[in-house]
Amino acid sequence: EVQLVESGGDLVQPGGSLRLSCAASGFTFTNYGMNWVRQAPGRGLDWVSYISSSSSAIHYADSVKGRFTISRDNAKKSLYLQMNSLRADDTAVYYCARVETLAGMKHWGQGTLVTVSS
Amino acid sequence: DIQMTQSPSSLSASVGDRVTITCRASQGISSWLAWYQQKPEKAPKSLIYGASTLQSGVPSRFSGSGSGTDFTLTITSLQPEDFATYYCQQYSGYPITFGQGTRLEIK
Hints:
heterodimer, A: globular, B: mainly beta, seven-stranded mixed β-sheet
C-alpha cells in the first residue's frame, strides 16, 4: 500500500524557518517525481514545488521561489521542503503527493499544518 | 501561467440528481487535466486523469470529458458521500494550476 506521511509542521514566527518531511513507503520511491501542494485555511489547493525522481528537474511556484527549497533523499525514501523567510500567507496545510506519469497525482499524504504567526 | 476557471463555485443538489461542473483553461492543455474530490479535513482524492480516465476504484457515476480548453466533470445519481468540494487541475506543464473549487452541497 502506498503511504505518504508528512511531518514537521509547527507554529513559527514571521521570518522564521521550518523543514517539512514526507516519508514514503509501499512503492519504489526512486521511480517517481513528487509535488508539494498546500491549502490555506478555507481556501483552495495551491501547488508549491516539484522535484523529479533523480532531482534533476525542480520547479517552484513564484510565490515561494527564493524562499523554499525542495529536496529528496532516495536512500531514505524521503522528500523535504525547507521553508525560509516564512510569511503569514504561507500558513497552510502542506501535502506531499506522488506524481503519476501522464496521470496527475493519485497518492497524497494526510498533510501537515504550518502556521506563521507572531 | 495557465489559469483554470471552474464553474459554478458552489452547487446545491439532491441525492439522485445529475450534476455537471465545468473547468476552463486559459490556453489549450490537450487532455492533461485531472479532477479531485476533497472532503473537510481530508486530503484530496484523485477521481479522473487524462480528462476522462477514471482512477481505479472510483465509481462509474463519475465521468469526465473535454480537451483543449473546456472540460466537464459529471456525477450521475448523486450519493450522500459525493457531497464535497471538487477541483480541476492542469498538468500540461509547470507551474501546475488548480481551479478554485466547486463546493457541492446537499439541497
